[in-house]
Structure formats: C-alpha cells, structure tokens
Protein 1
Amino acid sequence: MNGVDPSRERWKYLDNFLNKPGPTSDPLWVPGEETTTALETSKVLSGDVYSHGSVTLMNLCTDRNTRGAGGLGCEILKNLALSGFKDIYVIDMDVSNLNRQFLFREADVGKSKAEVAAAFVERRVEGVKITPYNGKIQDKDEDYYMQFKMVICGLDSIEARRWINATLVDMVDMDNPESLKPLIDGGTEGFKGQARVILPTMNSCIECQLDMHAPRAAVPLCTLATIPRQPAHCIEWAHIIAWEEHRKDVLLDTDNPEHITWLYQKALARAQEFNIPGVTYSLTHGVVKNIIPAIASTNAIIAASCCNEAFKIATSCNPWLSNYMMYSGDEGIYTYTFETEQKDDCPVCGNLARNLTVNPNMALQEFIDSLGERAEAQLKKPTIRSEAKSLFSQFPLSLREQTAPNLPKKLSELVVDGEEIAVSDPAFSISFKYKLIFRA
C-alpha cells in the first residue's frame, strides 16, 4: 500500500489535503488526525464555524428554475459522501418521476427521491450515514436546523431560498456561536450557474442579493385573457386568472401535485378552445415554476464548487469563498468570483427599512401587484400595514373583505411620503420593512 493505512486507502488523495498545509492554509491550522476526526465525527456541534458536525442537503434533483434532469442535488450528495462527510441529512419532498439522475433507476419511479438517493449512496460509500426526509424544508423548525454545522442548498425556487435564508439569519444568537450556520447555495440555469457562501448576519445574505434574480417578464393580461397564441399563454391564464376566479381562498402551492393538476386541466381546456396544441402536465409544471432544462456538466461544476466550500469550512484547510462565484459555459468556460456587499436596508439581515420609490397617485391594488414584479421585493401575496393601520390583508377572508375598500385608493390617501410600511407574505416567516418615497 506504499505506506498508506489500509483503512484510509480510499481516502489517500483526500488525506493529502488533511495531513499537510498548503500555500493558503492558515498558519494556526493543525493538519492530521484532529482535522480528519472533525470531518468524520457525526453530530458534533462545536463552538465556532470552523469545525464540523452534520450537514444537511436540501432538494435532491432541482435547483433554481431548473428541472432535475441532471440533478444538482444528486451531484452534491455524491460529492459530500466522497469528500469524507459521514453524517448527511437530505430533505426532498418529491417522488422519483424521472430516471435520468444517476442515483435513480427505472424501478425507483414513484418512490421518495430522498430515500432512494440516500440508500444508493450508502451502498456505494462505506461508512457514510444519510438520513432522508421526504417533505418540505418548511416542515422543520429552528430546533431541527440548530443541530447542523452548515446547510447546503440546491433548492427549486427563489421563495424556498429566501425562506431558509431568513430562518438561518433569525436563528443567530450573538451569545451563542453555535447558532451561526453557514449557508452554501448553488444554482444552475442552463449553461450558467452560481455558488455562494453565506455566513448569516456576517456577510451578504440571499435577500441582500435578491435584485440579482429579477422575476421573468410578464405576459400582458390582455393576451392571456383574450388572444392566447402559445401553450404557455394558456397555462399562465390558468395560473393567474382562473385560479384567482375559482380558488382565490386557497394559497397556490406549486409543489402540490393536486394544484398543478388543476392548473393543467384548466390550461388544457383553454388550449382546446383556441386550437392550441402542446399543453402537457410537464409543461404546466415548468411554466408555473419557471423551469429550464438542466445541463449535466453545469450541475457537476456547481456541485463541485459547493462541496469544495463545504470541505473547506468543515476542515479549515483553506480559506473559503468570499462570497460569490458565477459560472458561464455557453461560450467556452468562464468563471468570476467577487464579494457581494451586505446591505443595511436588507429586510432580513439589515437594520433599516428599504426605500421603495412609488408614484403617490398609484392605487394600492397597483402597488400590491408591483410588489410581485419588483426585483427587490418579489412578494406575490402581500399583506400590508402602515404605521397606523392595516392597509390590506390577504387572509383571513373576513379581514380581506374589511380592507378591500382600500384597494382603489391612492397611496397618498393612505400613507405619507417617507412613511414605513410592514409587508408580510405567507411564503415567508418574517415581515419586510419598506419606506415609501413619493415621486410622481
């Protein structure tokens, strides 16, 4: 074995990083058995972010706006296990409806993705323990997330990212260093991708960078309502108009198969009315969630970057990313690393209300609609309260009816220039503070 411990034969290349310092290692870093033990020991919650206990990986097969054809999460799970992590938790709410991820086989269709992937990797990598959970990340409370040393995201929407980001920021207790859980976020969109490292409250969080993920351009409502020309127009009609007409008291959950099926059936009937072919369940799911087919090579590169950062945080063998890496592979291979700045007016990690420039003659209904389109807000079901009173409430129905008369009123009739408002949304556990700046 050329002097290699037989029990470490599989990890001999990994040990090159763990047993000797490199040119960028911290002078105080101690290589060797202590570092290896810190990496492998399960459920060890140390007093700072340099040491490692457990890792949680969320969503196996999809990432931001990407169908799980290649599986960013599957790549991350495989990489973590082969990087020496021994205690991995996986959260995914889906069942296997594809067999194209390399951790799944045709026989796995219909089974829990989390459970199937966990069992597959455990069979291939001796000694690793993977605990799957088939459900939403929102099902778990802060006590659950407190047990981990870091969180790695490959989530399927901006909303889910914002939720876990706000949760981890809210968990931080300045008197308890163990409450700070690094968040490693990876995402791909076709041939483009990104990886970032977030230390909640210490550097720029996902909400600080929200305007980098501007919502897609909307199709004019007149097109959806009167002259649809494409399958996507029929689906958007079902999503925006039909749902509001028939099920406005039910919060649309794009991860709920029953909700997607309802939208698909409505869109299909609409398409048949206008002789538009091409509406399918898969397309409906894709349009509603803004899904773009994944590229396997992009998934592999971003997953490698995320796990590289996890390894560096767990072992302190080298400095980790500070704090954003972007990748583009559509014309050659290009990467760029830069540091995004923490914003004082961030609704999650900042202390100040964020300025929103608005037209004082804008109706409250128009303002509410704009919150879903503004890159810095992206709130789809906002409830709004001024410093003096509730302006509009989405729920419950009785309060919605009570505040509905405010909808046609001008903002200048409801608030004054420079007044702060609190905006909540059922997708998030926090309220967002904004200062309205009037500008005609």
Note: The mean pLDDT is 82.
Protein 2
Amino acid sequence: MRVSPQLLARGFFGRSLDEFKRYANIALKQEGIRTPSTPFPLIAFHDQSSLSACKVMSDADIGGFSGANLDHMPPGSTGNPNGCARFHGSISTELPRNNPQVQRTGYAAWRTLDRPATIFGRSLWDIDPYTYLALRIKSDGRKYFVNVQTDSIVPTDLHQHRLFARRPGEWETVLINWNEFVRTNHGQAVEPQTEILRQSVKTVGVGLTDRVPGPFELVVDRIWATNGLTDEDAKEDGRLNKWNIFAGGEGRDSGLAGNPPQNSGSSGV
C-alpha cells in the first residue's frame, strides 16, 4: 500500500499526535469513568491563526447585500486581556433584483471548519462527559443563535440555541445546557426532536438571523465544553462563586420561538 502525500504531511501526524495525547490524558485522569473537572476547549481566538479554522457566511453568498467579517483583535483592544475575534458587519434585507428565486435575506454567521482527519479517523468532538457549552463574549444585544453541527444522517441539520446576553456591551460568560439545543433545518424546528449526537460534534458557530437592518458586533474570546465554571472562570466573569451558574434550575427556553428566558439551564449572569 502506498502512503498518500496527505498522510505524509507533517500536519496530519501532528494532529494525530495531539489526538493521542488527548486520549492518553483522558485515560490518566480517568475522565471516561468520572465527571471531568477540567474544561474541554473547542476554539479560542487568542491569536491571529485561529481565524483560519473558521468560515464566515452571509446572504451575500446568494446575491444579498448583508456584509459579515471575522477579524482578530489584539489583547487589550476590547477590554479583554486575551486576543479575541470580532464578528461584525451590517444586515440588509434587500433582495437581489436579478435573482427572483431568492425570497429571503438578512442573515450572517460564522462557524468552525470541519476538522482535518487524523490517524484515528475523522476528527469529531466528543462532548458527552460535559453538561454545558460555554462562550466568553461581548454582545451588542442582538438576537444571535449558537449553532452546533453533528455528524448526523441529515447533513443540513443544526442544533440551535439563543445566545442570551445578560450584559450587552460587557464581557460575560454564557453557559448553555447541551440538552436544551433544538434540532432545526434551514432555521425551522423539525420533528422528531433528537438530542445532539454528543460524541460526534463537527462544528460550532454563531449566527444572526433577526433580519433587523443595520450594523452588528459580537466579540468572542473562546468557546468550550464544561461541567461548570472553574474558580478562574468565575473570577474572570465577576461572579461571587462558581455555583451561581446553577441558579434557577434547568429547562430554559431555547429562544427559537423568540421568548425571553424564564428559568436558567444556561446563564450569562
């Protein structure tokens, strides 16, 4: 059997080594048989190179007039000691005049790219041991949604949840219970509802679909899976203690119906 150039690439074996280290770390910490105590990073925007792992989309791809950008911001430039990503642009609901097939515009989004393969096969995130998806953000208060794509039978399915910001204009940490994501297809909830394939998460990202014309800005430090905030995370977010995130219990509205949150399985306090 001839080894292909792709397999010989340093990147392939480097990724495979990183994956082996991750599996070994899980075994050493016995995280397969007990609840992990350390967070599982999905993406961090602390350096410029992190943007190469993301894709930006908008209705401009089909002839619309919304604009979207994902730029790296250096440490300290946004009131954050870390580097971060600035998702910004302007929403337009104007329809293209020369393409009558396009009946709806006014959206923008970004997501992580599919992760390259390793010697262990396809690279998928296994977030099964974790209760929450966490995002460190500074929002302008617009109606953003968190989008999670899994290795499901229907490739266009997304699991979505409203990104509820409690302190627009300020840095905050938002936690969303994985069980509260809603299965959607082309922005509409579909039946039957199924839980996220927690061992086969492909991508994560954020979209803006409120169709309100005008500028938008969401700054993202990092996204990770967790079972609660560490003491360091709690201090960073200005919380009195890390258990504040559980106040209110679970069962929060996903926000897909546009309803404000009542009880909190996700939190941005």
Note: Confidence is low (pLDDT under 50) at residues 1-10, 242-252, 258-265.
